[in-house]
Amino acid sequence: MNFVKIMRPWHWTKNVFVFAALIFGKKLFGPIDEVLISMGSALGAFFCFCLAASGIYIFNDIVDRDSDRLHPEKSKRPIASGQVPVPSAIILAVICFLAAIVGSFLLTDTLAFIIIVYIVLMIIYSLIFKHVMILDCIIISIGFCLRAVAGAVVIGADISTWLIVCTFALCLFLGFSKRRSEIAQLGENSEAFRRTLAGYTPELLAHMLDVTSGLAIVCFLLYATDDRTIRVFGTNNLLFTTPLVLYCIFRFSALIQKGKFSGPVQLITNDRPFQFGALLWVLSCITIIYANRLGINLNSIWAY
User: To pair with 22 at 20 to 30 A between CA atoms, which of 86, 155, 273, 278?
Assistant: First the structure.
């Protein structure tokens, strides 16, 4: 059970960015054989990233085991608490990395390259970038962009620059949210746990959350009204999902700054109103993008 814990399967929700291209690359509906191949490939890429991320989590826990013992929650992690020996954890991390790389090679060489880049980048992050203020969140956001790009590559979808820009802006917001929740939870002990937290203050992070949330919203609006988007989808109706985007981002920001949750993952997996808003946005996007294939005439609906 402890070996499963150090793989952090509850954090695999972060890898859903792999499926973005499946929806926005118009691969979700069509000939059944093509759809099944696309879904299977996206699912394969998802699990490859899950294994790669688990390897990184284990590596990070090994590196941070001393500082984790100062954290009220992370001190209970199997490696920090001594329940899992470091040599055993190293073996499991190597297995995860190898399984992720081999599995990605079975899908496409390009996916394997992205997985390797992700693993190397995150290892360097754990050793160096994690200790550099602001750059720590930027590197995390790049990791999420790699997930989104991998999802497009593995299904053969065109990689839109907006896919990368929107993902980066949103994940930069999530990264600063994580730092804000850490400071709220640790208080005066935050610097002892992570050196970069000494440079962050609640006021500074509140400002960063405001800026990045606004950036994420503006990027979505630009994407929804971009000529390429209208040409590919045949409509600019994605613009009408903006209220849901605003609701999800603002609720997320409010709950994080109030310290209601210990981190983004906990909020996403436990807050029902946020989950409902996010699900409604995804379903709205699918309906708008695939309206013609679903036999839905949205123009007649807007006419009312």
Answer: 273
CA angle in degrees (0–180, nearest 5) for 113-117-120:
140
pLDDT (tens digit per residue) in 113-123: 999 999 999 99
Return d(Cα 22, Cα 120) in angstroms, integer: 26
For the domain made up of 1-157, the CATH class stated in words is mainly alpha
CA–CA gap between residue 170 and residue 176 (Å, rounded): 10
Residues 138 and 184: beta-carbon distance below 8 Å: no
Give ∠ CA 249-253-258 in degrees, rounded to 5.
155
Domain-wise residue ranges, the chain = 1-157, 160-304
End-to-end CA distance of the chain: 56
Contact 125, 58 (CB under 8 A): no
Is-contact 277 283, C-beta < 8 A? no
Main-chain dihedrals φ then ψ at residue 295, nearest 5 degrees: 75, 30
Instruction: Confirm if 139 and 118 have CB atoms less than 8 A apart.
Output: no
> For residues 205 and 183, is the Cβ–Cβ distance under 8 A?
yes
Tens of pLDDT, residues 184-225: 766 655 554 556 666 777 788 888 888 999 999 999 999 999
Contact 64, 56 (CB under 8 A): no
